[in-house]
Amino acid sequence: MQTCLSSQRLRTAGSYLLVLHSLEQLDTGHDDAFRLLRGAVAAKDWQLCRELLRFLHSMDDSGAVLKEALAQPFMFEAQV
After folding, report:
1. Residue 61, helix vs strand vs coil
2. CA 35 from chain center: how many Å?
3. Angstrom distance (rounded) from CA 17 to CA 54
4. Which terminus, N or C, of the chain has the lesser number of Cβ atoms within 10 Å?
5. Closest listed residue to residue 35, CA positions, set 57, 7, 5
6. Of 74, 58, 47, whose CA–CA distance to 21 is shortest?
7. Dihedral, CA atoms, 45, 71, 19, 49, nearest 10 degrees?
8. pTM, full prediction
């Protein structure tokens, strides 16, 4: 996944994210998903952003993870 992120293959990194999640190998801080979201925002891939936000919401019914994602500084950097 890291190789895909560094080479801007964001959709492939998203596929790896799903595999890691299904194998329950994601860390509890959701750093991998946030890194991918940061890359999608930078690339202005809004469809991937929507998919990632939906994915984060599905991980936590309380919405806490989604709120954490939306509070990330990179969410506002792309709009400047």
Report:
1. coil
2. 6
3. 13
4. C
5. 5
6. 58
7. -20
8. 0.79
Q: Which tokens sit at 70?
A: 């939306």
Picking from 69, 48, 73, the residue whose alpha carbon sits closest to that of residue 59 is: 69
Quickly list H helices, the chain.
2-6, 10-22, 31-42, 46-59, 64-70, 74-77
CB 39 within 8 A of CB 10: yes
H or E segment to which residue 23 belongs: none
pLDDT in tens, 47-72: 999 999 999 888 888 988 888 888 87
Taking only the tens place, the pLDDT of each residue in 20-41 is 887 775 555 588 889 999 999 9
C-alpha 16/C-alpha 1 separation (Å) is 6
Both tokens of 5, joined, read 């992120």
Contacts within 8 Å (CB) and 24+ apart, 57-60: 59/21, 59/30
